Amino acid sequence: MRLAVISELPCEGMVPRVILGGLKSGYEKHGVPAIAAGIHCYKRSHPPDAFSPLLCVGGYGADRGPYYDDLKKRLFNLLRHSQGVHYHHFQDCMTLPMAAVWYTCRQLRIPFFVTFQEYDNPHDPKAIEAIPKKFRVENNGWFQRCLMEARGVSAPSRYLAKQIAARMPAKFGRNIQVIPNGHDPNESARPPIQDFSGDPQDPIVVCVGRLWLYKGIDVLVEAWKNVCRADKTARLVVYGAGVCNKKRFQALARQCGVSRRIDFAGQIPRTLLFRRLHECLFSVLPSRHEAFGMAVVEAMACGKAVVATRSGGPQEIIRDGITGLLVPPGDPQALASAMLKLLKNRRLREDLGSRARTASVRYHWPSVARSYLRWMEISC
């Protein structure tokens, strides 16, 4: 059986790329041939992808009709030799890519599985504007029919599964399967000594997350102000895309008087990101709500303690006081207190990080892929 793993790629689509590429390799390690395809919905150039093929059909603005027709043709040619489709969705409504995948699966009579990776997180305004208004209605008949015809629906955390079921109970009388996302142990492996710079002179705390409001970066800046009063050396580095909010957070850092000790470094290559994770003291994720929290798993895989909020997915990944520290979302004081605890206690950091690395094994992509194959009733 050949599987097709497909997702719509938003303009800042690093997470979908990682998920698609990871699952493709995971399925293939279990002897199930797979292809991974991302569907771009913007008229702009993109860096090369780690997976192939890439359905770059262009934007769906004024040329919505031609875009949809072209996409269906490309999907038909891509999927006609597949026996199943695993579609990853990042919206709380029908989108043109989802509609085209569903239509093509019906046309070819192949099973269609849906995994919600997010549901109601705020998205890039351009992405929302690009969705036709009739698709944005939550109880839209197309969306209901698509999900009810799917062979199965899943989510990466119990938090997200409950969120979806609570919002659309009539459509989900059956259980939503919970299968976590994963990470590639080859990516998180410590670099060779000759290629590894080691711990920097200034202690570094790392936050990996897009600069969107629900990620709680403003709360982190407020908390870092309190940290800087008690610690005079540590620096905070935030890695993640989000140009529209970068200036806003930089202004807040200046207002709090900590701009010299916070660096908004933007999105960097993943090889460099994992090097920075190995170099840092610990990682922090201050989200107001989080569907899963891949940044948490990746930091744990690098042997780092993580300070995260009880915001959904992270509290299902982290065991408080054992593999990391959990604090209430939206609470700068609690967040600062947890970070200071790790800054002042090296032994605690190392103990939490060691147990975190051990716990991260269950999130290896082959293990995740095996869970999906069992869910889809595909022998491996």
Provide a compact summary of the structure.
By secondary structure, the protein is α/β, with parallel strands linked by helices. The protein has helices at 14-29, 64-79, 96-108, 125-130, 133-136, 141-149, 158-167, 185-188, 217-230, 243-256, 270-279, 294-301, 313-317, 332-344, 346-359, 365-375; strands at 3-9, 34-40, 54-56, 84-89, 112-116, 152-155, 177-178, 204-208, 235-239, 262-266, 282-285, 306-309, 325-327. Mean pLDDT is 85; it is low at 43-54 and 57-63.
What attributes characterize this protein structure?
380 residues, alpha/beta, Rossmann fold, 2 domains, six-stranded parallel sheet
Q: What is the 3D form? A: globular
| Helix and strand pattern | EHEEHEHEHHHEHEHEHEHEHEHEHEHHH
CATH superfamily of the largest domain: Glycogen Phosphorylase B
Which CATH architecture of the largest domain?
3-Layer(aba) Sandwich
How many structurally independent domains? 2
Provide the CATH topology of the largest domain: Rossmann fold
Instruction: Report the radius of gyration as a whole number of Å.
Output: 21 Å
Mean pLDDT: 85
Q: Strands of the largest sheet, in order across it?
A: 3-2-1-4-5-6-7
> What percent strand?
15-25%
- Uncertain stretches: 43-54, 57-63
